[in-house]
Each structure stands twice: as C-alpha cells, then as structure tokens.
Design goal:
This protein has two helices and 34 strands. 45% of the residues are buried. Helix content is 3%, strand content 37%. About 3% of the residues have low confidence. The longest helix has 9 residues. The strands form nine sheets. Strands 1, 2, 5, 6 and 34 form a five-stranded antiparallel sheet that branches. A hairpin with a 6-residue loop joins strand 9 and strand 10. With 523 residues, it is mostly beta strands.
C-alpha cells in the first residue's frame, strides 16, 4: 500500500453548562495516515479557521453555529436575523491540483499544506467560487480520455427562491464548467451531497419545510437552532433532480428533470450510472446521431425515513432506536422521459456512510461498502457497529416489479444482492470506510478497506486494514494508535505519499513533533 488517507471531522467540542455545541458544529480536525514501505505515518491538525483562531485566543466560544441553540456566550437573546455562522471546515477533505482542502457546506474551503497539515487560509479555488460556500461532498470522475475531474457544488438560499451551482475542475485546478440550476419554491436549500453520471448532476430535494414561525419565536428565544427550523414533512414529496452536465462528448441535448419520490431526507448518495434504452422498432437511431431519448439513471442513496434536527448527543435515549428515524441503502431508478423515480430498498439493516470504488464514479458499479448496525430488524436499530459489502447485480431495480421486494430472505437483502459483513466487536464503533485500490489492478473492488474504529474498552483508536473483497475474513493488519480520535465524517485517498520527509530518526517509534495533543484549549 502506497499513498495517503485523509479524514476530516468535528474534532473540538464545547461541552460546558452554558453552551453545549452540537456534534456537527465541532471545529474541523484533519488527520493523515501516509503509507510507504510497510510503514504508516500518522498526523493530525485542527483547521485554523478564522473562528477557531479567535476562540482559542479568547478561551471561550465567540461565534454562533448552525446546529447549536443560542448565542455563543450562552446569553438567551441575540439578533436572529444575523445568519452568519462560524465556518467549522469539518466535513470533507480533498487533495486536488497539489492543494489540500478542508470542506464545509456552509462556507468556503480552507486550504492546507498536504504534508504538514498547516492551514493556509480560506480560498475561492482560484477565483472559481463567487458565492459564500462550497459543499462538503464532491465526486472525482475519470473521463473517457483518462483524465480526472473534480465535481463539486455550492448553494444559494433566499426567500425568493434558491439555486444550486455545479463546478467541474480540471486536474490543474482550472474551472472547466459552471452550471447553475434554480430551485423554485425552495427558500432554504439544505443539500448535503450530490452524485454524478455521464450526462447528469444528481441530488435530492428532501421533504423538509422551513418553519418561519418557529424561526421568529423559538429561535429568537434560544429554544431552537436555525437547523431545527427545518422540519420533516411526511406529507410532502421528495424529489430527485437531474441537471444536465455541459460539454459531454456524446453531444446529447437533455433537459433538467425533477422526479417525485417517496418522502425522505437524504444526507448521502453513492454512485449513479446510466442505462441506455433500446431503439423502438421502426425508429432506429444511427450510431452517428445523438440519441433522442434520455437514458435511465440508476442512483444508490441512503434516504432517512424521517429526521429531526432537535436530536443531539445530549437529548436522545433508547427510544431513539425504534421507529423511522433511520436510513437504508436504496436504489432509485429514474426515467426522465416518463417522469418517474422508482425506489427499491437493498438491505434491511440501518446504514450510513456509503462508498464505492471511485474509479467507477459515473459508470456502472457492482460493489458498495457501507456502515451498518448489527440489529438487522424492521423497526429496531442500533449504532453503526459493522461494515457491510454489498455486491449488486446491475439489473437490480430495472426488473419488472422492482420496488416490491420485502427483504424476506435470511440475509435481509434484496434479490440480486449478496452481503458480507465485518463486525469489529461489542464496544467498537467504526467510521466511514475508505476504499484503497490495489496498485496495478483495474478490477472494481480489488484493493483494501481502511476503517478507523473507536474502541470504547481501551478508549483508543484503531485503524483496520481489510481485504475489500472479503470483509468477514477480518483485518489483514491493525494500526493501534496510542490515543483516541474524535468521531470523523468523510475522507479521501490519494496515491501520493504525503508523510514526513526522510529525516534521521523518523520511523517506527519516533516521536512525532507535529501532534497537537494537549496544545488546544478546551472552551
């Protein structure tokens, strides 16, 4: 294994009686784990955002956050119409065109040194970002000519209507395409993730409403956060939205489509791919002509059956793990011409943090890895305590009667899906898995899976390396870190080694001078 694993997440929490921050509002901490010659080099650093630096200097919270109630100092009254929130830079991380970027959907990226993890400052990605934010999620897509593109997005919200803008960056960091799509009737756009197929950008508009009355009453009195003003509405439809990508080699002219689906809240999507229709009898299409019909679009996603942003680490109990506040892995088949989106659940277990082999992004995939629970019950569920590998027949969801599968087989998966599960232990809690391709192999899924696990028994972190094709076989190796790690969110893998430069004494057992343990002030 040769390369570098990066992971971002809310590393610094505020847990005092006056001002308890929501987990999602913790300051971003990026870690790197660089592999070379059978050795692994760990380092971590907090993202020195403007807000982080000022709060560390003051020794107390100074800025409000999107998911946390009240003013920064715990005072009950504040200006609710000041919607400026601290950029926590805590969601995603990507190495692109020589730069490392810490991402959070409510603000601009922060550039970091990819080797030392030193924060370099807020960036507009070479002037490409003209708005106030850039999403915490992205996709890297390999084009037909072998080049890669970074596809990301930003949102703009207003009471007169919102919009989403997609960006495609070349390998040298230059902006290739910028596409803005209006979101009619959406006053506050909460779009956390997106995916991409050959011809479309794809995202989900969830079944949520912005409660204006709650905003000017409960929010004003510090009885809810601004995120809690987004309320799930089971009577409202969700929509999967397909926005045409510009400049595709096929030359096809396609229209944006908004397709109704079952009410849900969508945090995360995996991959998407297209299935071409056969020409109708008597109406052949010559290979030299652009196709006149839109392809079917297959999207694998993790919709929540319902969601409440009032639930925090301080408020939920055992009753939380019964009912509909859970997410499942679901395949959605979109027919742009018919205007339909058909959903089929792939696995009974509650699941989150889905990943696929990034080399097949935008193209047909067969394998998905996902965090899941061990309860495997229709109503009861638990923490994510296992990692599952699903191998999915590409025809799943396309057969006649798709969407009616009752998941009644012993493994609790849909017909055409096989399941392999790794369970690290009763008091072990894995985070998002990360796929690492095997050098020299182009076969989908051939490589390793990196999984950072919190071991509650030892209060330390373990990095497990598994055969990505055989999870139940257990770890091939385990890196035992001498300390715990806060729960992380999302990561990325680079084939570049970004560990320490060759220096005398640097290696196994060497004391890392860059570790930040004990140097950050608790607020």
């Amino acid at each position: 294994m040769y390369g570098t694993y990066y992971r971002n997440g809310p590393g610094l929490q505020v847990d005092n009686p006056r001002y308890r921050r929501h987990t999602f509002d913790g300051d971003g901490m990026v870690l790197s784990l660089a592999f070379r010659n059978g050795r692994a080099y760990f380092r971590n650093r907090f993202v020195r955002t403007d807000g982080f630096v000022k709060e560390q200097a003051a020794g107390r919270p100074l800025f409000r956050n999107a998911f946390t109630r009240g003013a920064a100092d715990g005072f009950p009254l504040f200006n609710p119409f000041d919607l400026s929130f601290k950029n926590v830079a805590n969601t995603g991380v990507v190495l692109w065109a020589g730069g490392l970027y810490a991402l959070w959907e409510g603000g601009l990226p922060y550039a970091m040194n990819p080797r030392s993890l030193e924060t370099l400052g807020e960036t507009r990605m070479g002037g490409a970002l003209r708005g106030s934010n850039f999403g915490g999620h992205y996709k890297v897509v390999e084009e037909a000519d072998g080049s890669n593109r970074l596809v990301g997005f930003s949102t703009a919200s207003s009471f007169g209507g919102s919009s989403i803008t997609f960006y495609e960056f070349a390998e040298d960091g230059s902006l290739l395409h910028e596409t803005t799509h209006p979101l009619q009737g959406v006053s506050l756009a909460f779009i956390h993730d997106m995916t991409v197929s050959e011809h479309y950008y794809i995202f989900v508009l969830s079944a949520v409403d912005f409660d204006a009355a709650k905003f000017v009453t409960s929010y004003l009195l510090s009885q809810c956060s601004v995120a809690e003003c987004l309320t799930f509405n089971p009577a409202k439809s969700s929509w999967v939205v397909l926005v045409p990508r510009p400049g595709r080699p096929s030359g096809r002219v396609l229209q944006p489509k908004q397709l109704e689906m079952t009410p849900c809240f969508s945090f995360h999507l995996s991959n998407a791919f297209e299935v071409e229709r056969d020409p109708q009898p008597g109406n052949p299409q010559l290979p030299s002509q652009p196709r006149q019909t839109a392809p079917l679009v297959v999207v694998d996603t993790l919709p929540w059956q319902e969601v409440s942003f009032s639930t925090t680490q301080y408020t939920y109990g055992p009753e939380y793990y019964w009912g509909r506040s859970r997410s499942h892995l679901v395949r959605v088949v979109c027919d742009p011409d018919a205007g339909t989106a058909t959903s089929q659940q792939l696995m009974r277990r509650a699941a989150e943090f889905c990943v696929n082999d990034p080399r097949v992004n935008s193209r047909q995939h067969r394998i998905i890895w996902v965090g899941c629970d061990m309860v495997d019950h229709a109503k009861a569920f638990g923490h994510l305590q296992a990692i599952a590998r699903l191998e999915i027949d590409p025809r799943v969801g396309l057969r006649k009667g798709a969407g009616t599968d009752a998941l009644s087989n012993p493994e609790g998966v849909s017909e055409g899906v096989s399941l392999d599960v790794w369970y690290p232990g009763d008091r072990c809690f894995p985070g998002e898995p990360m796929f690492v391709p095997r050098p020299g192999s182009s076969r989908e899924g051939d490589g390793w899976l990196l999984v950072v696990v919190h071991n509650a028994a030892t209060q330390k972190a373990e990095v497990n390396i598994l055969d990505a094709q055989n999870l139940s076989g257990g770890p091939l190796a385990v890196i035992h870190l001498p300390h715990r790690l806060p729960s992380g969110l999302h990561g990325s893998w680079s084939s570049e080694f970004m560990g320490p430069e060759d220096e005398p004494g640097v290696g196994v057992g060497a004391s890392p001078t860059w570790q930040e343990l004990g140097t950050i002030r608790a607020l």
